[in-house]
Write a structure and sequence with these properties.
Helix content is about 15%, strand content about 45%. By secondary structure, it is of the alpha+beta class. The two termini are about 55 Å apart.
Length: about 775
């Protein structure tokens, strides 16, 4: 018996007793009885119930006790009866105790799956409590897995057999009838004259035949998926003007090999175009008709798309909703003439009641402070009840990432024309601890550890959550890189929409020719600008040290053999810098975008008025563009332009502040940082590989990727990269570039994305640049 059924049975027994008497009867005696073979522990029942001798017998308390006993999961049936006595009532608990599983569940008739997997999905182990409800829940999980693997006719029955005289222990036998696998082979559309079958097949979302996954995973077939397909086809037709279209229930025919042919009968009907478009109702008397007409965005002669007509009605509702007229109704009165194919529309508007917001109430936030939610809202008490801003506020709160769900509702008050606005949220886990290891073509073998809290509260001891701040402690160690960092972000500094970021870090980078240690701290301020724009200021102070120089021999410039060059260890330098960055971002997803643009322009200055040892400045521009194509394919275009130059007391840009290019995140097909200016040993023979990259002061890069989704979490990429680093500032020599092309895989695992690329050099910047065929790294492209 399900919990709901047991509660309903309770109400049948208990409510009449309370309702028939003028006052609630007093309990004079409590009796606990077994409704089955197993004895019931009276002390256990009393420990989980509230009703006692001498207390009043009320429906609320009976309901609570029944629920409490069912929640223990020890009873398959709970009944609470009342028997009248002269001076009150006798309360009787009638309980059916669950037996325990004596042996491993026996599974019969399984061929497609392993028996161990069936038992795992069933979820019952030796010693577990067993009843019909527990078995039914587990069997539904098993059938769901069969349907995922295209066995829609699978059926499972079970039998419970007692193994002890008192019924305390039982055995369970599952009898599985798998049926035949239903491989969807043919979809036969009948009656479609205008919409081609090729377009209709896309409703099944099949994988392309060139996709190897489609060879092993044919389209899913079950009754529910076919009903979903029928509704989607009907919606497709109505969005193309076939408002009278009919789609019959799909028929299914199966051949001897288990192949399924689905037949779908379609009556397209007349394709309508828009005729007269009119407005009516009391709403037209409140707002100017010209204002309302401007929201319709439909023109006579257009295809009468059901989607566009519905969107026009929503826009009309929003005009009134944004002005506080709650519950405005917009009826679409359609007058279709099949003979002419003309559809006249009249939007009949009945405005709701004009309301203002009295109070804003936040519910469900057990950890997150009210303040963190309220500061994101676009509406305030005393204002008109703007439904559009309320919906936007709901989305903003959901996008904070602190809540599983966010819902807003108006609540009536005693004052006419004033409502409370209630936001109900459901908290979710915002902390994360990650430990792992990986490999990249740059860092080689590496390990990492990260502890983060996305809803941190620095003043919220002892739980330290609920303040909307972000804290991350991370470490990385490997053959080429050791790094430790602490990052803190306050998104509302001084209670303004101004983010404050604090970073502490130390990095030890081991290059082929030398090692660099950087230790520093940074303070940043960020502010959103109108539109999808943001500006950030960052002040950084950093100590850097080049050490363990591997080669102190005399080198000469590859492009100027008469110019000598030495690698020398440098004393510790302290760099004090200020950077400003302006970002424009319209991407639809910050991690795996499919459309939109992101552009970032920046400039920085170190030294000079900021003091310390390094006087340099730099400017740069980075752009990303994402263009969606057919079948969810995406073209990604990326460019990067950057210049760095010394001034003042710094004669030339220090080695570790120069620009380098080449490798997995820049131009694939070449060694890491190997493209660009180089020096060669002065005593090297011709053709020797005794060279070292020394970086430059101007960088240019362009990259294009063609991305094809294979299955969820896996994409195939084809790419082409081109660019170079040039020695002098502002020296963009496009006649001297390196380029590479190749293919790759994108494994989009949440929190741990992996990029694997196989690249081939196309055109080198010079003959001695080393090639690297494989590029592997962890992280997103941008």
């Amino acid at each position: 018996m399900t919990k709901r059924a047991a509660i309903m049975l309770l109400l049948v027994w208990a409510l009449p007793v309370v309702a028939d008497e003028p006052g609630a009867p007093v309990i004079r005696e409590i009796v606990v009885r077994s409704a089955g073979k197993l004895a019931v522990d009276e002390s256990f029942v009393r420990a989980h119930t509230r009703l006692r001798v001498g207390s009043s017998l009320t429906a609320d308390e009976v309901f609570r006790d029944t629920k409490a006993l069912l929640d223990t999961k020890r009873f398959s049936n709970v009944q609470i009866r009342s028997e009248p006595l002269e001076d009150g009532a006798r309360l009787v608990y009638l309980l059916d105790k669950k037996p325990r599983l004596a042996n491993e569940v026996e599974v019969r008739g399984v061929k497609h799956f392993r028996e161990s997997r069936i038992r795992d999905w069933l979820g019952l182990r030796i010693g577990d409590l067993v009843d019909e409800q527990a078995l039914g829940t587990g069997v539904r999980r098993i059938l769901s897995e069969y349907r995922k693997d295209l066995y829609p006719d699978a059926r499972i029955t079970w039998n419970i057999e007692e193994t002890s005289p008192d019924g305390a222990f039982v055995d369970v036998v599952l009898d599985v009838r798998e049926g035949r696998a239903a491989r969807l082979t043919v979809v036969d559309y009948r009656g479609n004259a205008v919409v081609r079958a090729r377009e209709l097949r896309q409703v099944f979302k099949p994988l392309p035949r060139w996709n190897p996954v489609s060879w092993f995973r044919p389209p899913k077939y079950d009754r529910q998926s076919l009903e979903d397909v029928r509704r989607e086809i009907l919606e497709l037709y109505r969005n193309r003007g076939f408002l009278d279209a009919r789609v019959g229930e799909p028929t299914v025919a199966r051949d001897a090999k288990g192949g399924v042919t689905v037949g779908i009968e379609i009556e397209e009907g007349t394709r309508y175009r828009l005729g007269k478009i009119a407005l009516g109702g009391s709403g037209v008397e409140i707002l100017p008709e010209s204002m309302l007409s401007g929201q319709i965005l439909l023109d006579p002669g257009e295809i009468a798309s059901g989607e566009e007509i519905g969107a026009a009605a929503r826009r009309l509702r929003d005009v009134f909703g944004s002005r506080g007229y709650l519950d405005t109704r917009v009826r679409q009165i359609l007058d279709a003439d099949p003979a002419t194919g003309i559809l006249d529309i009249r939007f009949d508007i009945a405005e709701g009641e004009l309301n203002t917001i009295r109070n804003i109430v936040i519910r469900g936030n057990t950890r997150t402070r009210d303040k963190v939610i309220r500061r994101e809202l676009l509406v305030y008490p005393g204002e008109i009840f703007d439904e559009v801003k309320v919906r936007r506020s709901e989305r903003i709160i959901k996008n904070l990432g602190f809540f599983e769900s966010v819902r807003s509702d108006p609540a009536d008050t005693r004052v006419s024309g004033r409502k409370d606005l209630v936001f109900t949220v459901e908290e979710k886990r915002t902390g994360q601890f990650m430990v792992g290891a990986g490999f990249s073509s740059i860092d080689k073998v590496m390990g990492f550890v990260e502890l983060s809290q996305g809803n941190f509260d620095i003043r919220g001891w002892p739980y330290l959550t609920g303040g909307g701040q972000k804290l991350k402690l991370s470490g990385q160690f490997g053959s080429r890189r050791t790094e430790a960092a602490v990052s803190f972000v306050e998104p509302w500094f001084l209670d303004r929409k101004l983010s404050l970021g604090l970073d502490l870090y130390t990095r030890d980078l081991n290059y082929t020719d030398y090692d660099v240690t950087r230790t520093g701290a940074a303070v940043s301020l960020g502010k959103p600008l109108p539109g999808p724009n943001r500006i950030n200021w960052t002040y950084r102070i950093e100590s850097s040290d080049i050490r363990d120089v591997a080669d102190t021999n005399l080198y000469v410039r590859l492009d100027s053999p008469s110019e000598n060059y030495y690698f020398e260890s440098e004393e510790d330098r302290i760099t004090s810098s200020l950077r400003v960055r302006l970002t424009h971002d319209t991407r639809d997803n910050p991690f795996i975008p499919t459309r939109g643009n992101r552009a970032s322009v920046f400039g920085y200055i170190a030294g000079g008025p900021l003091g310390f040892d390094t006087d340099i400045y730099g400017v740069g521009l980075t752009t990303y563009s994402y263009v969606p194509l057919w079948f969810r394919h995406v073209v990604s275009l990326r460019t990067r332009w950057e210049v760095v130059e010394s001034y003042g007391d710094t004669a030339e840009v220090p080695l570790d502040d120069r620009l380098f290019i080449g490798g997995g995140r820049t131009i694939r097909g070449y060694d890491y940082r190997d493209v660009g200016p180089k020096v060669v040993r002065a005593d090297a023979v011709e053709g020797s590989s005794s060279y070292r990259p020394v970086g430059g002061q101007t960088l240019g890069l362009a990259s294009m990727e063609y991305l094809v989704p294979i299955v969820k979490g896996l994409r195939l990429a084809g790419f082409f990269d081109i660019g170079n680093v040039w020695r002098d500032p502002y020296d963009f020599d496009f006649g001297n570039t390196a380029s590479g092309a190749g293919i790759g895989l994108r494994l989009d695992m949440p929190g741990f994305p992996i990029r694997i690329d196989r690249a081939w050099p196309v055109d080198k910047d010079n003959d001695i640049t080393q090639e690297d065929e494989w590029a592997i790294w962890i992280g997103y492209d941008n």
